[in-house]
Amino acid sequence: MKTIVNGLAVEYMDQGKGPIAIMMHGWKDDLHTFDAIVPVLADRHRIIRPDLPGFGGSDMPKEAWHLDDYAKFVKAFADKLGVNADVLIGHSLGGRITIKATASSVVKPQRIVLIASAGIAKRTTARNIVLRGIAKTGKAATAIWPLSIFRHPLRRKLYENIGSDYFAAGALKETFLNVVGEDLQSAASQITIPALLIWGNDDMTTPLQDGKRLQTLIKGSRLEVVEGAGHFVHMEHSNRVARAIEQFI
Predict the structure, then answer these.
(1) b/e for 172-206, b at 16 or more Cβ within 10 A?
(2) Cβ-count burial of 220 within 10 angstroms (0-12 exposed, 13-18 middle, 19+ buried)?
(3) 239 is in which domain, residue-wise?
(4) Could you say which DSSP state residue 183 is in?
(5) pLDDT at 154 over 90
(6) What is the pLDDT of residue 75?
(7) How far apart, in whole angstroms, are the C-alpha atoms of residue 145 and residue 15?
(8) Choosing a second label site near 220 at 20 to 30 A (CA), which of 67, 128, 140, 194?
(9) What is the mean pLDDT of residues 154-177?
(10) Does any domain span residue 40?
């Protein structure tokens, strides 16, 4: 399905009947990341999942967005469909948006589910500072041919070592920096509605310690840890995750 939200064409899927849950995917992902768990949830809920602007089949934002823009998008998207979100469910970036939208009351769900959510700012290590410095130096040093032929692979390798998705962000590079630069610990502490946190204990992108920190910050929240699962815990252990969400909402 397609709709227009604030001038942007947005791809989405709308399945089931009942209380409404809006599901939001992570960075460099799309709505199909939830394919395996939707059939279980759609038995008793209306599940709506958009491709966030800049991803999947949705239009690219016309300018660099901040997290506030994505939170406002969720509200505008729901308004366009004429619905109120009873539940917000977000994976990774989608979890980050869920925290921001809920804490700021841009969206007012009754419950939230955070799956391997981003939002805890990473410390800038001395190693990363050095690597970023080398990357910038390398950019200048390889501006002249024949060294210029090594510029792209060199910078890619350096940013991979840093562990950043920045290099692969393409047209969304500035949006990426805006989004990941915001620490949401204060926002998380303002959330007072029931919250379920689902994490894989082998998650290397948003480590389990981030989940434990969010559980501490969100009063009364519950953390479900899935052994042997990584960042895409909802795909690796779809049945367990679906049942946990179903029971919670």
Answers:
(1) beebbebbbeeebeebbeebebbbbbbbbeebebb
(2) exposed
(3) 2-121+182-248
(4) -
(5) no
(6) 98
(7) 55
(8) 67
(9) 64
(10) yes
Q: Are residues 108 and 148 in the same domain?
A: no
Q: Are residues 29 and 111 in the same domain?
A: yes
Q: Are strands 46-50 and 8-15 parallel, antiparallel or unpaired?
A: antiparallel
Question: What stretch of H or E contains 190?
Answer: none
**7/77 Cα distance (integer angstroms):** 11
What is the distance between the alpha carbons of residues 241 and 92, in angstroms, rounded to a whole number? 15
Number of structural domains, the chain?
2
The residues facing 224 across adjacent strands are 198
127, burial (CB in 10 Å: exposed 0-12, middle 13-18, buried 19+) = exposed
Query: How far, in Å, CA of 133 to CA of 233, rounded?
Result: 34
Q: What are phi and psi of 113, to 5 degrees?
A: -125, 125
Please report, for residues 37, 53, 212, the alpha-carbon distance to residue 8 in angstroms, rounded to integers and kept in the order given: 27, 8, 36
99 part of a folded domain: yes
pLDDT value, residue 129: 47
Q: Can you give the pLDDT at residue 200? A: 98
Last residue of a domain, one of 172, 203, 235: 172
Both 79 and 47 in one domain: the answer is yes
In a domain, 177, yes or no: no
Token code pair at residue 97: 């948006």
Residues 166 and 192 in one domain: no
Token couple for 246? 């179903």
Residues 110, 203, single domain; the answer is yes
